[in-house]
Amino acid sequence: MDSLVRQLALVSESTSIEFPEVSRVAAALDKQATRDFGPIWEIRTSVHAFATLEDVPLGYWPMVVQDDIGFPGAAGIHLDKDGQPFALIDAGESWGLTASHECLEMLADPFGNRTIAGPSIKSGQGRVSYLVEVCDPSEAAGFGYTVNDILVSDFYAPSYFDPVAASGVRYSFTGAITEPREVLKGGYLSWQDPVSDHWFQATFFGSKLEIKDIGPIDASKGSLRSQIDAITMNRTMKVLRPTKAARTAFATRKTLGDQSSVARAKSLKSQIASLVKAAKKD
Questions:
Q1: Three-state SS at 43
Q2: In terms of Cα–Cα distance, which of 82, 115, 85, 98 is closest to 200?
Q3: Least confident stretch, 6-20, 127-141, 162-176, 243-257
Q4: CA distance 14 to 51
Q5: Chain centroid to CA 98
Q6: Minimum mean pLDDT among 159-163, 168-172, 239-243, 260-264: which range?
Q7: 64 in Cβ contact with 86 (< 8 Å)
Q8: Are strands 44-50 and 61-66 parallel, antiparallel or unpaired?
Q9: Confidence of residue 158 (pLDDT cuts 50, 70, 90)
Q10: What is the pLDDT of residues 74-113, one digit of tens each?
Q11: Nearest to residue 68, comparing CAs of 49, 39, 89?
Q12: Are 118 and 161 in contact (CB under 8 A)?
């Protein structure tokens, strides 16, 4: 387990997303990161909500929700002028899912350049270097799951890059990915071929998996991940939107969850008032 605790800060600069909602999403991301993601990737982390960027302490990696992220290509991990990572999140209806996606990918690869070697899924290509983007192959909303009634992203495990499939191995947290280097509908996978020095992508945004040569990537123009995201952003934003049926189900669960939280808060306030009253009598 990595001894370094990676601390992330969730902040909204959107006019439509207020602090209570940021706090609820941050709590879900923190639980996902510490309970689900951390043990699998051997990473220690915490996620906290802050009202403004000015409130974020030094050492935290900000995730900033904005109405305008400079689309296309602005979302994802970037580096500030001091070389520290931060992420931008579009304030759309599925912003919590996007925040989960960016949170996990920042934790696995803070600087957007981490690669893992493995056999190429392209026939005849040999061994290649895969960009570590833990949510991309199963990024579509339909493969996500809920934490505290917040929809969060599925993610692959380190075993995703195993050379061959084996029984009983977990390739993604939800089990949606069933074999190494599998790309599910709505997802994609990126890698570099050392022979040609070109980058390739396997995308499943249509009716079938397609492999495309996207050419060389210039490291001077930003992290590998930020440049890859720029290529896929338009299609990625579409698959991150839950279906109408899923949105209805989430809304119902959220309403029930809110009712439970309100009832619990009312009960707790009553108990506190009774304790304070009793203390005053004494």
A1: coil
A2: 115
A3: 243-257
A4: 11
A5: 6
A6: 239-243
A7: yes
A8: unpaired
A9: very high
A10: 456 677 778 889 999 989 888 999 999 999 999 999 998 9
A11: 89
A12: yes
Please give the full DSSP string across 35-74, using - where no structure is assigned. IIIHHHHT-EEEEEEESSGGGSPTT-EEEEEES---SSS-
* Helix, strand, coil percentages, rounded to 5, for the chain: 40, 25, 40
Res. 239: pLDDT tops 90: no
Mean pLDDT (whole number) for 248-255 = 56
3-class secondary structure, 44: strand
Helix (H) or strand (E) segment spanning residue 89: strand 85-90
φ, ψ for residue 195, nearest 5 deg? -75, -50
Average pLDDT over residues 19-32: 98
Q: Is residue 226 pLDDT above 60, yes or no?
A: yes
* Residue 67 backbone phi and psi in degrees, to 5: -70, -35
Token pair recorded at residue 204: 């499943």
The phi and psi torsions of 137 (rounded to 5 degrees) equal -65, -25
Kind of pairing between the strands at 5-12 and 44-50: parallel
Cα–Cα distances in Å, from 134 out to 41, 42, 68, 158, 186?
Answer: 10, 14, 25, 9, 14
Two tokens, residue 199: 């980058």
Sign of the CA dihedral with 264 first, then 265, 266, and 270 last: positive
Q: What token pair was written down for 195?
A: 């022979």
Q: What 3-state class would DSSP assign to 191?
A: strand
Answer for the pair 67, 91: CB distance below 8 angstroms, yes or no: yes
Check whether the bond before 72 is cis (ω within 30° of 0).
Answer: yes
